[in-house]
């Protein structure tokens, strides 16, 4: 493809992308294809001769689009959203054009420096305490990671190194000696990472990657599935009994199942009770709900992170208008990361890195090469402005409230299982054989209601007009509905509710 062919192809691709966005609301949100649908449509071997852009683009239309799940559809109400916006796409275009895997500052100073500046912008936009800024006295700062899972695995490795080195130093061994390293390896298997049983699976995976144990703190429906101080204390005491060393605690701001928020303040108070608990690395995983902090009315939550929290992550690619991948991780002390992850062979050395006056982001993450993701974040923040971003959060939270009110309004059919939060409503179908419970609490924890809820959920997704997800909370089968992508609108939320009501009535009628 030469320069002029690229110009024509790029124009045509942009037109096609715009037409795709225009068509998204009318497309079936889930594709009607079977597993393996694509292989017969694509030649078995790659083409020997060059093909035209027209041919390639035609195949996108006829072979790829039919197999897409349309995450941008306003009828997509499953999982959590994965947003994309025009300025974000432009950021991706420039990033691809500049392709400069800036693992060291020298490899492309603009990539590193813009990332540092933009991470400070993000921290300020979210009202994070000043300790997470790159300009802080404590040498904090932010780094863009591929995903929340990468961020969590990265900080768990850093937390393990910090704790195990402290333990070995306390035994009087000297860093850099064989004895020191051997002792670290002896102690590592006794280290344990903690998180609630509602924490995303990335915490358990992070512990696995860090080569340590993992234990979960139980949650209860009566606490809205949040981690409480008393439950955590019980697990910490059990670890002590079992002679394990807790080194990392994941707290969640917006769990995957129900968007519940762990009890930060009281948990931090428990960690102050023993000197060894004070050494635990506390991480706040706000992969989805962290975006809400951009709106002033939620920023009080971030005040809890000023003390006793070592790191925080949120995925701008979920709810904050930047496309995947844009997971932002902030740490209180950058040396916790670089002490664990800086391995510098001769070929990576250069005068700037050696002077220690620049940031080399390869030492803040697992991968060496990195994409220029700061550009798209910069473009989005500038295009929307803080007011535009706040407006998006407020509008979608209000849509969530509308949906929750609709569910409450049909208490003959539905019961809300956990407190609706940050656009998410978690509910189930009532068992009509059990009389209404007007208190709103879950009253019929039985298999009949579970079976009906599952049937309704499956029928809705099979028909594909809207896409929703289900999960199990404290043994109860529930439906989750969240409408928060940039195309979300009230008419779609109301339509989704009508579909759920119609399908529920249909299933209840058929019930033997
Ligand atoms: N943490 C929470 C609370 C999540 O909801 C999710 C995914 O939905 C993750 C972590 C993992 O995110 P990622 O796909 O960026 O690894």
TrEMBL record:
Its cofactor is pyridoxal 5'-phosphate. One of its GO terms (cellular component) is cytoplasm. GO terms for biological process: amino acid metabolic process; carboxylic acid metabolic process. Keywords: Decarboxylase, Lyase, Pyridoxal phosphate. The keyword Phosphoprotein does not apply. PROSITE patterns: DDC_GAD_HDC_YDC. The keyword Lyase applies. It comes from the Eukaryota. One of its GO terms (molecular function) is carboxy-lyase activity. The modification N6-(pyridoxal phosphate)lysine is found at residue 318. Belongs to the group II decarboxylase family. This is Aromatic-L-amino-acid decarboxylase. It comes from Penicillium angulare.
């Amino acid at each position: 493809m030469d320069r002029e062919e690229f110009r024509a192809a790029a124009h045509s691709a942009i037109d096609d992308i715009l037409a795709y966005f225009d068509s998204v609301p009318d497309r079936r949100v889930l594709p009607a294809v079977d597993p393996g649908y694509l292989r017969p449509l694509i030649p078995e071997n790659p083409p020997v001769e060059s093909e035209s852009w027209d041919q390639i683009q035609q195949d996108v239309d006829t072979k790829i689009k039919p197999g897409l799940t349309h995450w941008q559809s306003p009828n997509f109400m499953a999982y959590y959203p994965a947003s994309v916006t025009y300025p974000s796409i432009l950021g991706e275009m420039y990033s691809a054009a500049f392709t400069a895997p800036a693992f060291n500052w020298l490899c492309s100073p603009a990539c590193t420096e813009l990332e540092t500046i933009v991470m400070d912008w993000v921290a300020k936009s979210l009202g994070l305490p000043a300790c997470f800024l790159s300009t802080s006295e404590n040498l904090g700062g932010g780094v863009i990671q591929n995903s929340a899972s990468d961020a969590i695995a990265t900080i768990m490795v850093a937390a393990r190194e910090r704790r195990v080195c402290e333990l070995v130093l306390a035994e009087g061994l000297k860093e850099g000696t064989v004895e020191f390293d051997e002792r670290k390896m002896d102690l590592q298997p006794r280290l344990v990472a903690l998180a609630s049983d509602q924490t995303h699976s990335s915490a358990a995976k992070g512990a696995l990657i860090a080569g340590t144990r993992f234990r979960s703190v139980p949650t209860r429906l009566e606490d809205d599935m949040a981690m409480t101080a008393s439950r955590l204390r019980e697990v910490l005491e059990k670890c002590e009994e079992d002679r394990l060393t807790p080194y990392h605690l994941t707290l969640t701001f917006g769990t995957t199942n129900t968007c519940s928020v762990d009890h930060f303040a009281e948990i931090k108070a428990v960690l102050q009770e023993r000197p060894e608990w004070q050494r635990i690395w506390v991480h706040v995983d706000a992969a989805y709900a962290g975006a809400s902090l951009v709106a002033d009315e939620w920023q009080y939550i971030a005040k809890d992170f000023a003390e006793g929290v070592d790191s925080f992550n949120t995925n701008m690619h979920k709810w904050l208008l930047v496309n995947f991948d844009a997971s932002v991780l902030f740490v209180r002390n950058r040396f916790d990361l670089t002490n664990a992850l800086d391995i510098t062979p001769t070929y990576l050395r250069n005068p700037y890195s050696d002077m220690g006056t620049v940031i080399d982001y390869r030492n803040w993450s697992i991968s060496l090469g990195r994409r220029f993701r700061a550009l798209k974040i910069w473009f989005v923040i500038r295009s929307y402005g803080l007011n535009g971003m706040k407006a998006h959060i407020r509008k979608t939270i209000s849509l969530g409230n509308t949906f929750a009110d609709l569910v409450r309004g049909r208490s003959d059919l539905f019961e809300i299982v956990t407190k609706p939060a940050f656009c998410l409503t978690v509910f189930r179908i009532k068992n009509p054989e059990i009389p209404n419970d007007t208190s709103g609490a879950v009253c019929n924890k039985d298999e009949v209601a579970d079976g009906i809820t599952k049937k309704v959920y499956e029928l809705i997704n099979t028909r594909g007009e809207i896409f929703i997800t289900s999960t199990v909370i404290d043994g109860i089968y529930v439906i989750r509905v969240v409408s928060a992508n940039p195309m979300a609108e009230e008419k779609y939320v109301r339509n989704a509710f009508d579909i759920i009501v119609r399908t529920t009535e249909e299933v209840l009628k058929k019930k033997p």
